[in-house]
Amino acid sequence: MLSRILVSVVVCTGVCTVATFTVSPAIADHYHPEELLVVGQYDRRQIDVADTVHITPDSAALVRRAPGANINGNGPLTGIPQYRGMYGSRVNVEVNGMTLSSGGPNWMDPPLSYAPTAQLESLRVYRGIAPVSSGQETIGGAINVTTWSGEFGNDTNFESSGRIRLGSQTSNGASLLGATVISANNTHRFKFSSLREQANNTDFNGGTIDSTEYRRDRHDVGYGYQIGNHSLQIDAGRNETGDSGTPALPMDIEFIDSDLASIKYHFDGPQWSLSSKLYYSDIKHGMSNYHLRQAPSISSMWRRNIALGKNIGFRIDGQLNDNHGSWQFGIDGHKENHISDIDNPKSPMFFVVNFNDATRKVLGLFAERNIKIFSNWHGEFGLRHNQIMMDAGKVDGTPALMSGMMGMPSPGQTLRDQFNNSDRSQIESNTDWIAKLYYRKDEILSYYIGIAQKMRAPSYQERYLWLPLQATAGLADGRTYTGNINLNSETAHELELGLDLRNVRLELSPRVFYRHVDDYIQGTPSSNISASMFVAMMNNMNGTTNTPPLEFNNVDAKFYGFDMDWSYQLNNNWSLQGVVNYVRAKRDDISDNLYRIAPTNTLAGLRYQSTNWSMTTEAVLYAQQNKVSKTNSEQVTAGYGLVNLKGYWQLNNELRLGFGIDNVLNKKYRDHQTGYNRARNSDIKIGHRLPGQERNVFIRLDYQW
Ligand SMILES: [Cu+2]
């Protein structure tokens, strides 16, 4: 089973992408071979996670290997992918075909946290303009991940296969133990999978970062059935995250108990195929500012937040193949529902109904055409319509029960009444369209041009956050926000140009892009007097120094940049590969930059590949980021460079040893997209940007049969 050559993790370009598709036919089921060879090479990056050697629990860390992609880190399990300057709900993430809206209002369980690295089969980052079939709202891009489910057998006899993974590392004493066992014949396939991950606080060159410990258990069962051209897959999973830190956020994770379930049916005929799925998730999440980090000294400042999130979704799509390419038609629906309540165990009277039955439903219809136009032109055209329906129930809280001065309503009371008396039911009708053309000049060179309109309706936080709080889907800027029920959808227009060069030794895929966004949703200084008075009042009462609140509003923004991945084969054993990223993101209505944008960066690796072992030296360079957001009070970050080493040794057909050293030179550095420290800590001041980990030695053993 492990007969294929294992290469150390690389960004797959050209040949490698095709190879990955060949070994993972399940992923390729929507594309016939011709498309695979033409578009498959260019418009997505498949990171072959089977070949990673790290023990990092967070799959989001892997997206950095795709051009244009980065990660916003709020904690060890809480990475939020960033793509070309957009992140959060702007980048559509699907896990095994499921859209998973985070259960936590601050995204302590971002969608990728439901696909732990140790269970991944593939991580696919769509390059540039994402196809309309890749997800419902893809204004900032699309990422699809799948976890490993094994293969069906060749005859009626059941055979077992599986993977066991063990790992440990030094910077936080992390340990990883995971096992997946498959029992399958040619018709039935059973899967059992369990994973346990835990770590202490991470050390940096200069001390320890409090609130970075984590523990997570994950259990899955699956059943697959195939007969003829039909297949059925039923999966159920349980995620149990325990005490886990998020030092960039005001609270830490106490628990995230999530149940996930899905059923999928697929028919694959010679001329047409049909896929359908139905999925559900139920998330219970608790967090606090006292159980993991040092508790506030004033007991009235203790806070606990219990959040419940539910997702239900479906999709039916069909693909029709003809002589020129394929048509794809689909309908999809997703509903998320959120309840979030804040209390204080030291003060039983205190309560805030943060979100009450906040609901967001998206119903979408799409059509996509992949077509070979002349002998060397290939086009992709897509049209999608989404209907978004949102609503939320009435709210209340202790701050709204306080009496105001001289018989006037208090600011909290005014905010509550404004919210409860408003029309919270909102409907948006959004249209996406895309057109992409590839011109294949010869065997070596192809040109590409793409244009698109993409839209995104507001999130429930952006609309329904009624009291100035930091529940902002993980922005982690330390600012308090209120929502705005009357927000419009964002509309982006985008142009992308590039070329793909591929000869025997060299591969290059540069892209430039320009994207203008009308009605971009951004926090701006609040004009709501009650919100400002409320924050001032809280500062007075608690001795805090919170800056005046922001309010989510529609502004104009633009994004432009360049990204590229490349590789160069020096000879049979030695190769070079890397990624280069540059993005600018700024407001178009005022002179300001957008917040938390990845600095210009590059990654370059030199690899030696032998038959049963490999070694890679990697340089990671980040420029300073001084194009920061004044509106979000963002701090400048210095540039830095890191050296990493990694490799593996294939001991026999079943056993592989992975190892490596991150940050070999033990640099003290600060990643711009890691937030500011919010947990009282003797080694890092509150409000200072969190440092990166110290030199880290890791080792991993994979047994696969
Ligand atoms: Cu949370």
Could you walk me through the main structural features you see in this protein, from its secondary elements to its overall organization?
This protein is mostly beta strands and 705 residues long. The chain has a single domain (3-492, 502-545, 567-704), classed as Maltoporin, Chain A. The protein contains six helices and 34 strands. The protein has helices at residues 15-23, 33-38, 398-401, 411-420, 460-464, 529-542; strands at 44-47, 69-73, 79-83, 86-87, 92-95, 98-99, 120-126, 142-147, 159-169, 175-184, 188-199, 202-204, 207-209, 214-227, 230-241, 252-268, 272-288, 304-322, 325-343, 351-372, 377-391, 426-440, 445-456, 481-482, 490-502, 506-508, 511-525, 550-569, 574-587, 601-609, 613-622, 640-650, 655-662, 696-704. The strands form four sheets. The protein has a 24-stranded mixed sheet that branches. It has a five-stranded mixed sheet with strand order 1-7-8-5-6, with no helix packed on it. Strands 2-3-4 form a three-stranded antiparallel sheet, with no helix packed on it. The chain is globular and about 80 Å long. The site of copper (II) ion has 5 residues, from β17.
